[in-house]
Amino acid sequence: MKPVKVGICGLGTVGGGTFNVLQRNAEEISRRAGREIEVAQIAMRTPNPLCQITGTPITHDVFAVATNPEIDIVIELIGGYTVARDLVLLAIENGKHVVTANKALIAVHGNEIFAKAREKGVIVAFEAAVAGGIPVIKAIREGLSANRINWVAGIINGTGNFILTEMREKGRTFADVLAEAQALGYAEADPTFDVEGIDAAHKLTILASIAFGIPLQFDKAYTEGITKLTTADVNYAEALGYRIKHLGVARRTAAGIELRVHPTLIPSDRLIANVNGVMNAVMVNGDAAGSTLFYGAGAGMEPTASSVVADLVDVVRAMTSDPENRVPHLAFQPDSLSDHPILPIEACESAYYLRIQAKDHPGVLAQVASILSERGINIESIMQKEVEEHDGLVPMILLTHSVLEQRMNDAITALEALQDVVGSVVRIRVEQLN
After folding, report:
1. Hey, which residues are catalytic here?
2. Domains along the chain?
3. Which residues contact 41 (CB under 8 A, 6 or more apart)?
4. Of 55, 58, 317, 352, which one has the greatest count of Cβ atoms within 10 A?
């Protein structure tokens, strides 16, 4: 059987790793795929010094790969929304299968891309788009296909997790750790996508679609970053038996789907609360399997390449199969996707951590308790600290029971209007994940 010919678009970190893994493990990969896989063309702007590409045809035009009649599978590793979208759609139009690690592309344009792929009878594989080397998409789409998935929760951005780990373990400030993350190459010069939750929301959008059988709806995901977190909150959470993680949560409810990324207190005895540094982890709760945890490297040259090549092997195995009988892109048959709505954050429900800075006057705590009680918000625990010397204020830390976000918004507005409350109330959501 003749080799399957592959074109790699982009020879950066992931592209270089993919090329190297394909070369180093060529025999093993061919045994698994049932056919030899040959890198027949590479599109790149600059050479990657870690790759020995001598003898492989090179072009600077990514679209030349998509239209090359010799190429069977296009591997898109250039990133971004625009050129990548045009490249993938052109490859599909030319009858080529596609493998991509581009979570932004899939989260924003996936519905369009998958519809075009179905029309042309080709496969678009995207395991590497979520959590790097962790095969979580395949696990949910195939390994857990017997389950009605209840919720998915994940630490799916290594940069944010590194920052929060350093803040907790070493008492460092957000700004200090971010500067180090940029120096180490964990964070970009513009870290917005990482620290504001946009990167994680791209990934969560994909996971939610596969878990619940809904169309991709990135524009409806709620995102909240970690830039305002302080070491004080990290330490108070620790004292209460919790750790703060930048968590993505997708949960099925009777009213709709919760789709949210934000700082979250998690009990410190949960395995996911102990995922540190740049590592990623995803918890999936199904009605039959219960909770499962997937842990590993969420980025990096060869961990991500591992998922790219695994997708490549899957595509090679399925190339000759009937398109109508392949595993659906989003786990459910296209005509069976649900219209279950994505809930606005105000309609989501969780427990809360509140930190209130108050003047050292009698009766303030009673006023706080009264405001919460009037709105049906039950207090689970209260921790009141000593007067802080630098400003004379008393920090009050409360944990509440689960409540609708809109009620908490109303309560916080009332709390901040109190004469003895100074500044904004810090609010962090709490998830038990049990």
Report:
1. 203
2. 4-133+301-336 (3.40.50.720), 136-297 (3.30.360.10), 349-430 (3.30.70.260)
3. 5, 7, 8, 56, 57, 58, 59, 64, 65, 68, 70, 71
4. 352
